[in-house]
Amino acid sequence: MSLPLSDRSLSALPKAHLHLHFTGSMRHRTVLELADEQGIRLPESLTVDWPPTLSAADEKGWFRFQRLYDIARSVVRSEAAVRRLVREAAEDDAAEGSRWLELQVDPSGYASPFGGITAFVDLVLDAARAASGDTGVEVRLVIAANRTRHPLDARTLARLAAQYAGRGVVGFGLSNDERRGDALSFAKAFQIAERAGLLAVPHGGELRGPDSVWSCLHGLKARRLGHGVRSVEDPQLVAHLAEAGVTLEVCPSSNVSLGLFGSLADVPVRQLFDAGVPISLAADDPLLFGSRLLTQYEAARTIYGFGDDHLAELARMSVRGSAAPDDVRRELLAGIDTWLASPPRVSAEGAADQHGLGLQLDAEARQHTGADLGGERQQVRR
Ligand SMILES: [Zn+2]
């Protein structure tokens, strides 16, 4: 594959970030510090062996992923920790050019230390407002139900989300192991969310194939899909997604970390893009996968061979697929045009610099993910 020759800064490309989980957004440094403050012992896969080696190939692998998630969640027990998480997620997004962040959270996992799901959502929304003001990244929430729990729990969360429609909550999701819990049994919850004007954004087409995506589309009226990459197995479905303009929140690093694909090169980003399917690149859970949003755009450039015109189109797709109001969309789309109209940093003969650029961005990504934490690792490991 020939490498694209221009190298406009990807962190300067305005974009929206539509698939980032609250707990999974946590900086590695933060989970270490919060655990240390409270005397919580973390497993080595979150300390010296971070990022963890994961696999979702079977239920056991998924269980291990969820167990690490539960441990990470257990360090967030105070108002200050919640505010820190949201602020840092917005700061990291700001550094990577994101201007609109839809942060996904299942409040049930935080109900007990915060006095219930409503009090918790109030707190996260207040933290989001503060973070938006401080960083310039507009932070909104997607409230997500858990597929492995009873559909009645999902209805409770949908009613909660509906109460906050227009007040910081923009969507309703469905997460956790796609192999468990039929999407259709959550249809009533999604109806409640839809009536409130919330975007339907379930996970689908990640651990299961096209049949699961069709269920999300028909049964839940999904307007976007968390992942959706396995739609590629059904040409009819791909054509439908393109025609209906359903955005896939594609998270290549997540897919590789969970073993859905052997390498980044195998994630069908190019195939879906070329078929006209709207794609919004996203990080999913940087805490567990070790990379953030910018790494996904960097992969689009260096692995999927996207030139700057197509990278700009990826950014436009993220904005169009978002719940951002018209004025924010206009501003972001204009910013993307300005980015593309700006002169590239390196001219056509700079192909030889591509390798150097990759290294530079790798280093930036490591900084963002806080990978260089040798000293703190020692401190926490006890
Ligand atoms: Zn996700």
Task: List strands and helices in order, with pairings.
Layout: E1 15-21, H1 28-38, H2 59-74, H3 79-95, E2 98-105, H4 117-135, E3 138-146, H5 151-163, E4 169-175, H6 187-195, E5 199-200, E6 203-204, H7 210-219, E7 224-227, H8 235-244, E8 247-250, H9 252-257, H10 269-274, E9 279-281, H11 286-289, H12 293-302, H13 308-320, H14 326-341, H15 354-369, H16 374-380
Parallel strand pairs: 1-2, 2-3, 3-4, 4-5, 6-7, 7-8, 8-9
Helix pairs in contact: 1-16, 3-4, 5-6, 12-15, 13-14
What's the CATH architecture name? Alpha-Beta Barrel
How far the N terminus sits from the C terminus, by CA atoms, comes to 47 Å
> What fraction strand?
5-15%
Supply the CATH class: Alpha Beta
Describe the fold and architecture:
The chain is of the alpha/beta class and about 375 residues long. It is about 50% helix and about 10% strand. The strands form two sheets. The chain has a five-stranded parallel sheet. It starts with 14 loop residues before the first strand and ends with a helix. The structure holds zinc ion (ZN).
What is this entry, summarized?
The protein is α/β, with parallel strands linked by helices. It is 48% helix and 12% strand.
Question: What descriptive keywords fit this protein?
Answer:
382 residues, alpha/beta, TIM Barrel, four-stranded parallel sheet, 9 strands, globular, disordered C terminus, binds zinc ion
